[in-house]
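Thread: quick sanity check before group meeting

JM: Hey all, I'm pulling together slides for Thursday and realized we never actually wrote out the predicted structure for the chain we discussed last week. Dropping the sequence here so it's in one place. If anyone has concerns about the input, flag it before I start.
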Amino acid sequence: MLPRHSSARQAVKIASDLPNEHTSMLDLEFAQLSDPGLVRDHNEDFLGHFAPESPAQSRSHGWLFTLADGVGGQDKGEVASQVAVESVVEGFRKAAAGELHSNLLPKLVQAANTRVFETGMAARPGGVNMATTFVACALRFDRAVISHVGDSRCYLVRRGHAHILTRDHTVPNEQIRLGLMTVGEASRAATKHLLSRSLGTEMFVNVDTSEHQVMAGDVLMLCSDGLHGAVEASEIAAVAGHGTDLNSAAERLVAIAKQRDGSDNISLQLIRIRSVERVGMYRGRPYKLR
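JM (edit): ok, ran it. Output follows.
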């Protein structure tokens, strides 16, 4: 897990240490960074990941990246985000070998929701309101599965463009979906940061999950709204793409967010795909493509 940082210079970069002879397998590098910003005196964001320890585990479990942003205005947002991340990472670690990420990830996020809710109820007599946003990305072979609740995002940077793979669960976004508000109106709405969904608010939550093919050279970015609220998708692509050092890219993106705003905690994970193992699926089982 990544401790809550007080400085943008405390970036972490971990590259795959799996044996080089397995050149056809999924191989990646990543950097992650969390910063309290310029206004808040503590950090309610929390990051975590699971890295396989062998080629066999890369194929049986894969990689997992998680980011949670404790909801401001609620009690113990920093506890909610940490509980959610640790619950999902531990569940991923203990999952049955070969379980489909598209089935596994939403189950783990639902279980994390229950953990956060129960932690809040047990905090004191009568309970406390405890909630967090959450986004997770699981990678195996040539696939990325994204599950999320709230307005923390996942972007895919490919060929100089950044595409959002998640949909913010905010009140204005729901009104856009229902045709009650335009995109322009939503951007100016006083409720634009009001969540329509979060982990821990209720016993059950609706988890959005999607699956995407990834290619060598792709960069995935998970981030809290402290980053995407201040940095445009085009800037994310410019900074994180083109083979840029991921540590430097993470620090640069945080610096831009702080320069533009800095009123919120700022967190991100950058994941560069170095190679993939192309597979097809038959009755839930992968087979190698030539």
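AS: nice. The helical segments are 55-60, 77-93, 101-122, 171-177, 183-188, 225-228, 233-240, 246-260. The first helix runs from residue 55 to 60.
JM: adding both to the slides.
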